[in-house]
Input
Amino acid sequence: ITLILLAVASRLQALKAQDRVIRLEETLRYDAVLSEELAKRADDLRTGQIIALRFASDEELPQLIERTLNGEFAKPKEIKQAIKNWRGDYLRV
Output
């Protein structure tokens, strides 16, 4: 049981670290792609929303962030389904 718990704990720690890196990358992307006002408003996004929005292309990102901040999406899965031009994340472990 201890080995199983150790394996689960190590996996969760790795995923949490990846989530933090994704948040940092997306914050930098927001500064480059979004207007200053929208980039500041994007600070209100939850981590799950940021992770889902990372798949959006630069062209559709501003509209999806606006829709997300306006409460149109209840779950991150809904954000992913709204993306038309998918930008893959092939480096996630």
About this structure: The helical segments are 2-33, 36-41, 47-53, 61-69, 76-82. The radius of gyration is 15 Å. The longest helix spans residues 2-33.
